[in-house]
């Protein structure tokens, strides 16, 4: 009974924090673009350290070893490139609010529509992955039915995101990021304190020259696909675009992204180490979705273990709120209400937050996968949008022949679906097959973009 109350109290605390000081009176979509470097860094970290990262990476590492590092390791590299190069390009047109607006400003209205439709549909899967992790955690800790855990977390996030918009997301993200990082480092300290040196050495990265039992290694093709597809999401993803645009200036956006990149790299190493340690124990039953909860319960006494896992519940809220707001903003501003006045657009977006929250929770209950749901979205996004978005870093992107870019976006987005349904790629893990599918879409899209460049003389 006490544990149930603690779980509900933590979720309620974030709702109260998100709605403190009447955030609904601020501009809904970007909170008046007044975020400092600390807020930008905290929001990026909270967005990146969602359920797919904190629980999903430990799960993958407990199955395939250190190759799981490249999920967040690629993300750290993407954030570094974002800070050094692409952030400036994103802020060239400060009136833009969403990533499809940025894309459409160079490639035309069809590109804006195509990207908006792709993001809206795919982000249902991204959001549902967070609800899946939340439901699994609460089910494991408290014995709740899986659907109850999904309903509690989804309901809380919908309340403060729908009412407070970006101001609520920024406020809760910073607190959630601090709680997540503190909880993870507490687990690490417990691991180092209690584990014999030889066992700990066996879990360290093979890059240090230490022999480890890693059942799966990546080929160069698989590594390139995973790094490009996942890293690209952290470089020009729609959620990261909105984080950059909330900064009060370019310096705040860049400093925030650099700070987040450094902390994310440390977290990538830490999470993978925890998962590999579970693998090294030889406990087959712990290799999977329960890898991190199993390890925490092994390392810590009952009450501290419960508290750490409850604090990690913040990870399951932190990414979901940003993704939820992104999906609602794109659906309203780029598809349904492009010509609607700002006040009416915000009111409509609030209703869309509720609708998308309900839909994604339904998907989570029907398809309870973490990495699977999110990698499916990443594959489609990378195939159809990553290449045109990367080209926006260069001033000549607007001179490409637009019709070929549109064809590339369509073909590149559809090819991953065809490749996965036809089972074209033979890889030892479904995550890698999805990455290879996304890479194949990028190649097709890139070929059409090259054609768009070669025929640019037709543009007057």
User: In the CATH hierarchy, what is the class?
Assistant: Mainly Alpha
What's the β-strand tally?
0
Strand composition percent: under 5%
Radius of gyration using CA atoms only: 21 Å
- The global form is globular
Helix content: over 70%
Q: Unreliable stretches, pLDDT < 50, 5 or more residues?
A: none
Write up what this structure looks like:
With 460 residues, the protein is mainly alpha-helical. It has one domain: Sodium/glucose cotransporter (Up-down Bundle), CATH 1.20.1730. It has helices at 2-19, 37-48, 51-64, 70-90, 99-107, 109-142, 146-194, 197-202, 220-236, 238-246, 250-281, 291-299, 302-336, 342-366, 371-391, 402-422, 430-454. α9 packs parallel to α10 and α12 packs antiparallel against α13. The termini are far apart.
Summarize the structure.
The protein is built from 17 helices and no strands. By secondary structure, it is an all-alpha fold.
Task: Offer a few descriptive terms.
Sodium/glucose cotransporter; 78% helix; 460 residues
Helix and strand arrangement:
Blueprint: H1 2-19, H2 37-48, H3 51-64, H4 70-90, H5 99-107, H6 109-142, H7 146-194, H8 197-202, H9 220-236, H10 238-246, H11 250-281, H12 291-299, H13 302-336, H14 342-366, H15 371-391, H16 402-422, H17 430-454
């Amino acid at each position: 009974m006490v544990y149930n109350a603690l779980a509900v109290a933590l979720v309620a605390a974030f709702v109260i924090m998100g709605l403190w000081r009447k955030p609904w009176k601020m501009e809904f979509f970007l909170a008046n673009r007044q975020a400092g470097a600390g807020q930008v860094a905290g929001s990026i970290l909270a967005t990146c350290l969602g359920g797919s990262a904190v629980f999903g990476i430990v799960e993958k590492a407990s199955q395939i070893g250190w190759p799981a590092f490249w999920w967040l390791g690629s993300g750290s590299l993407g954030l570094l490139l974002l800070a050094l190069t692409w952030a400036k390009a994103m802020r060239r047109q400060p009136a833009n609010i969403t990533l499809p607006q940025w894309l459409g400003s160079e490639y035309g209205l069809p590109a804006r529509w195509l990207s908006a439709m792709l993001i809206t549909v795919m982000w249902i899967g991204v959001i549902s992955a967070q609800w899946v992790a939340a439901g699994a955690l609460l089910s494991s800790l408290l014995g709740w039915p899986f659907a109850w855990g999904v309903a509690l977390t989804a309901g809380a996030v919908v309340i403060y995101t729908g009412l407070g918009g970006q101001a609520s997301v920024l406020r809760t993200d910073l607190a959630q990021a601090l709680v997540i990082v503190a909880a993870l480092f507490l687990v690490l300290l417990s691991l180092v304190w209690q584990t014999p040196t030889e066992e700990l050495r066996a879990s360290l990265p093979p890059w240090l020259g230490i022999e480890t039992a890693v059942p799966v290694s990546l080929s160069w093709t698989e590594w390139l696909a995973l790094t490009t597809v996942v890293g690209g999401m952290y470089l020009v993803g729609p959620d990261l675009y909105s984080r950059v645009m909330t900064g009060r200036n370019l310096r705040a956006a860049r400093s925030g992204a650099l700070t987040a990149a450094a902390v994310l790299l440390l977290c990538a190493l830490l999470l993978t180490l925890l998962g590999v340690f579970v693998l090294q124990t030889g406990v087959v039953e712990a290799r999977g979705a329960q890898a991190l909860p199993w390890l925490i319960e092994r390392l810590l006494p009952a009450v501290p273990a419960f508290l750490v896992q409850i604090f990690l519940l913040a990870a399951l809220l932190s990414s979901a709120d940003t993704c939820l707001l992104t999906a609602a903003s794109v659906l309203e501003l780029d598809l349904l209400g492009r010509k609607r006045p700002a006040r009416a657009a915000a009111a409509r977006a609030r209703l869309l937050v509720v609708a998308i929250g309900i839909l994604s929770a339904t998907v989570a209950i029907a398809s309870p996968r973490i990495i699977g749901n999110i990698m499916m979205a990443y594959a489609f996004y990378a195939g159809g949008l990553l290449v045109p978005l990367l080209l926006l870093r260069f001033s000549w992107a607007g001179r490409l022949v637009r019709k070929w870019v549109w064809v590339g976006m369509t073909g590149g987005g559809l090819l991953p679906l065809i490749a996965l349904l036809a089972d074209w790629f033979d890889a030892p893990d479904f995550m890698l097959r999805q990455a290879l599918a996304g890479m194949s879409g990028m190649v097709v899209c890139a070929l059409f973009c090259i054609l768009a460049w070669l025929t640019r003389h037709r543009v007057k």
